[in-house]
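Quick check before the chapter quiz. The format below is the same one you will see on the exam, so make sure you can read both the input and the output lines.
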Amino acid sequence: MSAGRCDAFSWEIARPSHRPGARADGGMCASRSAPPSRLSHPEVVAACEPWALIDLDADRHPDWIERYQVEAYPTLILTDPKGNSVLEWVGYLSPTELQRRLELATARWPQLARWVQAGGVEATLRWAETANELEALEQSARLFRLVLRQGETDADRARAQLGWSWVQARQGNCEQAIRGYRRFTKMSVGDSRLERVEAAIDDCRNTRQRQERLRQR
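Here is the expected output.
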């Protein structure tokens, strides 16, 4: 296990940084098998600066894989100082996209950290919605499902149902998004995000149709 930078990790755990100029409330940034060319990009290195990183070999540290339930590579994880996963991004990201997401996550970090520490349904919903905004879609879906199981009111469950449907549409799971949307409409609860979710479902359908036409050629 050795200290590292974002341009040097295969599977890395970033702990709160104590380096001069680094954020005191930073967390963890984790990945495995991420292309070095992407991670050595100057803008990406700068965006990683708030995070103190530890380089781990995933094959030699299966306990970390189990703890964070990593199922695909590359996976990047940001944690709070206690090691709780706050944001997770699965799949390859270009240097520009990775830089953008890290900068957005750093800007939203104080809010995210408060919601993770607060617990409860409202905090979990805000956490899930922010994860969706920051395109941590797999994690956002898990959080919405948690509220669907544990929500205390119909309004909580309806809000989670709509959020989950939105995530499914963004992931290209059109049928699941439509089923979730229909369940939401049966709840008869208004939500300001409704038009955005409907647009995401339409985009999902249109993308699926274009893909089908390309396969038929």
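If your answer matched, good. Confidence is low (pLDDT under 50) at residues 1-28.
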